[in-house]
Amino acid sequence: MKVSKIKGTLDYFGEQLNTYRYIEGVAKEICNSHGIKEVMLPTFEATELFARGVGEGSDIVSKEMYTFVDRSNRSITLRPEGTAGVTRWFVENKMYINPGLSKYFYVGPMFRYERPQAGRYREFRQFGVEAFGPGSAYLDADIICFADSFLKKLGIKNVKVLVNNIGSKQSRANYEKVLVEYFTKNIDSMCADCKNRLLKNPLRILDCKVDKETEIMKNAPKISDYLIEEDKEYAKSVISALDALDINYEVDEKLVRGLDYYTSTVFEFIYDDPASPINGLTLLAGGRYNGLAKELDGPDTDAIGFATGMERLILVMNELGVAPVLDESADACVITIGEVTKLEGIRLTNYLRSYNLKCEIDYINHNLKPQFKLSDRIKAKHVLIIGEDELNNGLIKVKNIETKEEKVIEVKNILKEFNKEGNEYAYKK
Ligand code: ATP
Ligand code: MG
User: Fold this and answer.
1) Ligand 1: distance of its center to the CA of 309 in Å?
2) Which of 74, 147, 228, 371 is the most buried (most CB within 10 A)?
3) Are 220 and 209 in contact, with CB atoms under 8 Å apart?
4) How many helices, marked H, and strands, marked E, lie in the chain?
5) How close are the terminal C-alpha atoms of the chain, in Å?
6) φ, ψ of residue 31 in degrees (nearest 5)
7) Pocket lining: 399 vs ligand 1, CB cutoff 6 Å
C-alpha cells in the first residue's frame, strides 16, 4: 500500500532543512542579544484557548483550525498560531510576577486548514517573539527594528515595512461603528467573505483581497480619523521612534491584521519585488495585543509580538540566492587494504570523529575500488590509507584530494594533518 504525505505538509531534508536550521540559528543568536528567552510549548491546546484568544471572528478560528475530540471527549485544537499559547503559559505560570518587561521566543509547527500554494501550507513553522510588560512606543519601534534586522541578517533585503495603529478598544469601537454604517450601505456589491465580516469582524473587511481595488474600499473611513487623543499620540511616538531607528516604513491605514486580539500598533513585512511571482507575500506580521492576558483570566498586561513563517523565509532566500550552501563534504575517508586492517581502520575513524572530524569508512569492502567510490560519494577532503606495511610500521598514507599530494606519515601525528591538537594515536596491533 502506497501512503503519501498529507496535502499541505512538507518533508524537510537536505538543502531545505539546512536552511531551516540556519534561520533558526540566526533567530536564536539575535534573540540572545536582545535578552529574549526561548519557550517550547504544546502543539495542541484546548480549543477554547483559540476561540477566546484568537477570536471567533478571525479566519483562523472560523475556517482554518484542526479541531478534534479526544478520547475523553475534550475538544482539542492543533495550534494555528503561537501567541495564544504563549499568553496561556505566561498567565498559567504567573510569569507576570517578574517586574518589568519579559520577552520570549518560540520556533515550531503551526497547523491551519488552508488552500496549499507557494508559501502556504497546512503544517508550517513559525518563529515568533512575544514581549509582555508596560507598553511603550519605543518598545514597539524596537520590536519592528528587531524584525527588520533579523530579515536583513538572513540577506532578505527587498522588503516593505507597513505599519498602522488600529487603536485601543475605545477607538476601535468608535471606528467599527462608522465602518459598519459605511459598508452596510455598500455591502450588496461586495464579496461573500466581506458580507460575513460585516457582522463578525468589520475591521477585517479592509483586509479583503477580493474587493481591495474597489472604489468602495478606497473611500472607506480611515481609522486615523477615529483614534482617541491618547492613541493618536502613541501612534505618533511609534513613528518618530521608527524614524530615529532609521527604519524604512510606510504607514498603511488599511493594515488591520486578521486576529481579533490586536490593538494599537500593527505591522507587516512584505516581500517587495514586482518582477517576482511571490511579490507581495507577507513574510512577517505582528502587533500589540494588550487585552489578551486579561481575556485569558490573567492580570491586565500589555504585550506585543510578531511571527514569521519559516517556509516563506526559505522560499525568499532561495529566490534571492542567499540560502546557505549545504556543505556535505567529509574531512576524511579511511581506506584499508587487506582484512586485518579493517578493525584498525574503524578504530582510527572513531579516534578522528572524537575530535569532531567528519570521517567515514566502508565497513564491508576490502577492495580499493568500492572504498574510493565511498570517498567520492562523501566528498572526502583526505583519503587515509592503511595497508599491512603501514600497520606494522606505525605509518599511514595520506592523500589530499584537492592538491593530489600523497605522503606517508607516522600515524601518531595524524591529527596535525587536520590542524588539530590532541592525544597521539597508535595502532593497537
Ligand atoms: P496571510 O494573510 O498570508 O494568510 P496571516 O495573517 O494568516 O497571513 P499570521 O497569522 O499573522 O498570518 O502569521 C504570521 C506569518 O506566518 C505570516 O506572515 C506568514 O509568514 C506565516 N504564515 C501564516 N500562515 C501560513 C501558512 N498557511 N503557511 C506558511 N506560512 C504561513
Ligand atoms: Mg492566513
Assistant:
1) 6
2) 147
3) no
4) 14, 16
5) 51
6) -65, -40
7) no
Question: Is the per-residue pLDDT at 429 higher than 80?
Answer: no
- What's the pLDDT tens digit per position in 298-308? 999 999 999 99
Distance 354 CA to ligand 2 centre (A): 47
From 126, 256, 288, 313, give the residue whose CB has the most ligand 1 atoms within 8 Å, as the site to mutate: 126
pLDDT digits (tens, 9 = 90+) for 166-211: 998 889 888 989 989 999 988 888 888 888 888 888 888 888 878 7
Query: What residue's CA is closest to ligand 1, atom 24?
Result: 120
Q: How far apart are CA 378 and CA 390, in angstroms?
A: 24
Q: Would the CB of 168 count as within 6 Å of ligand 1?
A: no
Residue among 70, 75, 72, 49 at smallest CA distance from 61: 49
Check: CB of residue 44 under 8 Å from CB of residue 77: yes
Residue 380 has pLDDT above 70, yes or no: yes
Is residue 102 very low, low, confident or very high in pLDDT (cuts 50, 70, 90)? very high
- Counting ligand 1 atoms within 8 A of each CB, the residue from 312, 313, 315, 317 with the most, and so the one to mutate, is 312
In the predicted structure, residue 416 carries a pLDDT above the cut 90? yes
Instruction: Identify the band that residue 258 occupies on the pLDDT scale cut at 50, 70 and 90.
Output: low
| Nearest listed ligand to the Cα of residue 119 | 1
